[in-house]
Specification:
Blueprint (H helix, E strand, L loop, with lengths): L13 E6 L2 E7 L4 E7 L13 E15 L2 E6 L3 E4 L5 E17 L9 E2 L6
Parallel strand pairs: 1-8
Antiparallel strand pairs: 1-2, 2-3, 3-7, 4-5, 4-6, 4-7
């Protein structure tokens, strides 16, 4: 594909294993970061917070978004905003889940391959 064009099922990006059963494909821009997160059935991330605003879009499957004191069921087509510094995590439903996260400003701690939720974990 031409420069600056991507496909959700394509290769590329920066791979990060966030937790068991939870892999992110990260695309870093100057002002924002896009992360395609694939959850195996029942996989759950570590509760964490970071200064960046985060938008999440459930594009496949279902799960529960834990954000602050709330636990909200989500399914394909749902999306949400997590303000900066709000504690959150996600747990996939029985069929797994694919979520697109958009962080602004960019998450520089996601710009290297590796494991975990970055330095802000």
């Amino acid at each position: 594909m031409p420069e600056n064009f991507f496909n959700i099922d394509g290769e590329g990006g920066i791979l990060r294993t966030l937790a068991p059963g939870l892999v992110a494909q990260v695309f870093a821009g100057e002002q924002a970061t896009v992360s395609i997160v694939r959850f195996e059935p029942g996989a759950k991330g570590k509760r964490h917070a970071h200064p960046q605003e985060q938008w999440g879009f459930c594009i496949e499957g279902s799960g529960t978004r834990h954000q602050g004191d709330a636990a909200v069921p989500v399914a394909k087509g749902d999306f949400w905003l997590t303000p900066g510094d709000v504690s959150h995590t996600f747990e996939a439903g029985p069929e797994g889940c694919v979520v697109i996260d958009v962080f602004a400003p960019a998450r520089r701690d996601y710009e290297t391959p590796g494991e975990g939720f970055g330095s802000a974990s």
